[in-house]
Write a structure and sequence with these properties.
alpha+beta; 3 helices; 4 strands; 30% strand
Length: 105
């Protein structure tokens, strides 16, 4: 389960993908496969969620990691670099951004 608290030491990563309605399901399938087969098994992984907008033109991915270095190690792995090339074929762009929780309500 995600730990969305200001006092959490977890590293939050929010990635947004720009896609098209015709590619959205393919991208979603590829992301689900990446999480089920690889990402969720990496050291430091806590939790993740995938969100699709109603127009099926954007996917937002929220993930949490025990440490920033855990996320970066996963991202730099050969398998994830290969998967990112495949993900890129289903979208116009994507960008992972690392965040700290500033406030919760």
């Amino acid at each position: 389960m995600p730990k969305i608290t200001v006092s959490s030491d977890a590293q939050t990563v929010i990635t947004t993908f720009e896609t098209s309605p015709g590619q959205c399901q393919d991208l979603l399938d590829a992301l689900q496969s990446a999480y089920a087969e690889f990402i969720s098994k990496q050291p430091g992984f806590i939790a993740a969620a995938l969100h699709v907008n109603d127009a099926q033109t954007r996917i937002a991915n929220y993930s949490q990691w025990e440490r920033r270095d855990d996320f970066l190690a996963m991202l730099r792995s050969g398998e994830m670099r290969e998967r990112n090339r495949a993900l890129n074929s289903f979208c116009r762009s994507f960008e992972p951004v690392l965040y700290d929780v500033a406030a919760t309500f």
